[in-house]
Amino acid sequence: MRELKKHQPSMTVDEQIANLREKGMVIENEDFAKSFLNDVSYFRLIKAYSLGLKIKNGDYDEKVRFEDVINLYLFNSNFRQQIFLQIEKVEVNLRCRLSNYFCNHYGVFGYEDVNNFVDATHHKELLDDIRREIVRNKKAPFVKNYLQSYEDAKIPLYALTELFSFGTLSKFYKNMKNEDKKAIASIYGIGYTYFESWIEALSYIRNICAHYGRLYNVKLLKTPQLYKRYTESGIKNFRIFASLLTLKHLLPNDRHWHEFVQVIALLIDKYPSVNLGLIGFPQDWMEYLSKQF
What we know:
About 60% of the residues lie in helices and about 0% in strands. By secondary structure, the protein is mainly α.
């Protein structure tokens, strides 16, 4: 049985800086380093963005500067914000398209009927999620209006989806009948098995973005199913670039997509210490994100 590690004691900012220097990190401006570590925690910055910067004995390469770690942190922050804006577009239009389709086929309260879904257990979980969201948002004007002014105090799906998280949307879609999944996915010109995995992966990434998490040098746990032409080119679905490819397909008519690609290019130019491989970007990544399909 392996011996478990002991927890590290808390360190003051001065001790954090001394510890980094002891491990070989170059800190040229100590006041700047102190200021930054008072704004961004040592654990959030160093533990996450030092990955790959240490040599085998746990010390830093002698060329690694404190500013190098900060630049990776700042790149991730800006990169994450830009991706979040693109995911928001998919989330908003999926709410619209899913609710329009479902209401037209099953009625505005069709979500209550288990027969309109595949799995009864997942349907019950959906209804439980809906009840919790209604309680949590009971003071929102449109929720209060439906609860107080309409018969049975019920909320139609076209309004209810405004309370759905992307995760709830993904679960709703996943439990729909295959013919219904196909109909919605066809609006995007995508096969429903691909579409299902894409929105599940984007929902997961959206939560990382919403909680200010890390996309740089991360193997994502929820991964999209990729087209063969991408996998045969060596693109890995566990890095963030794979999900950018799915966004390109989900937003084919978005007039701002080219601007998004240019912003990402500018970020990569601004932070040259970024290792493209750690975000899954091939050398010709701009061609992948820009060309028509």
